[in-house]
Amino acid sequence: MTKVSLNQGQGSKKVGRSVLLGAAFLMATSSIGPGFLTQTTVFTQQLGASFAFVILVSLILDVFAQMNVWRIIAVSGMRGQEIANKVLPGLGLVLAIMIVIGGLAFNIGNVAGAGLGLNAMLGLDPIMGAVISAIFAIFIFLVKEAGKAMDKVAQAAGFIMILLMMYVAFTTSPPIGDALANTFTPEKLDILSIVTLVGGTVGGYIVFAGGHRLLDAGVKGVESLPDVTKSSVTGIAATGIMRVALFLAVLGVVHQGLAIDPANPPASVFKLAAGEIGYRMFGVIMWAAAITSVVGAAYTSVSFIRSFHPMIEKYHNWVIIGFIVVSTITFAFVGKPVKILVLVGAINAIILPLALGTLLIAAYKKDVVGNYKHPMWLTIPGIFVVVVMAVLSVRTLIVELPKLFS
Fold this sequence. Notes:
transmembrane helix, Amino acid/polyamine transporter I, globular, NRAMP_fam, Iron transporter, disordered N terminus, 406 residues
């Protein structure tokens, strides 16, 4: 009996609601990191109500990227790097190296964001805040049921972010009519903002976060697909709500003609919207966004090297802790290497079409998925996402990066 038939025959064990929500919010909160908060604020300043169109397009691209990846991982019962090696020997190693390097570099920014969050929330020194946040993240992987602890933290952080963002959006009284009109017929169009948002929310490790979490929880096989779909859609919906709420909050401030501080755009929005309380709320949101991104980046990045050696598999929680420690030490002693972060961001943009394209090929290989038939309504949009993101990513590498390093 082949490995694939074994996976499909056994299927997944009964899935708890907490596992499904945990995977959904791990993906959602990983995609809503410190960078996302700043990007959304800056682009809303530039595009105004037209940014609603960018959100719509990026959500559509995200939906098809996530649903394809989660589904193929579940059916195959294999992680992304293992699937890639089935498509082309050695490709899994290349994908894993790209994701680990990207995850490590961006985790420096996530740790920095956690420090800034505690600074805004409690007035702590940013470096001290980063160290405290790292200790909190490490503790999650020291408890006996680390997976369950991670699920609970992701869910709690996600709900807190949604509630606070919706409150601030309500207080700024945004022009909802303009936003709705521009959702389908934008007055301004900016391709770079779409690439940035898609790359930041499903690029690199993020597109694999939920799928790998479900796999580690034993959710696999064709019969698990309804649960997998439910979890992925929940995660995408949570991401969408957070994006829209933050966009409306910023739009309300811009519409009132208030000046947003370029030094810290998202913090400025919350302070303008709700005064000192709003600034403290920003601290809570920034910390929640950052700490879940720290956990998500470390967990998912390490999941890409777990199958490479039995010792990594056996002690993977300690490897995750080491990942967080290295990120924190680098931030504390070196700071955020901006140019390296941008370079790795470009690499992350390439990872999405490479990873999704590889998995779409795998979806039609019997030694990966057995007799499973991948639906064309997912394959065709998936190919569209691959082509669009590949073209735009290459353009970014050729045109934008030389400007940065010239």
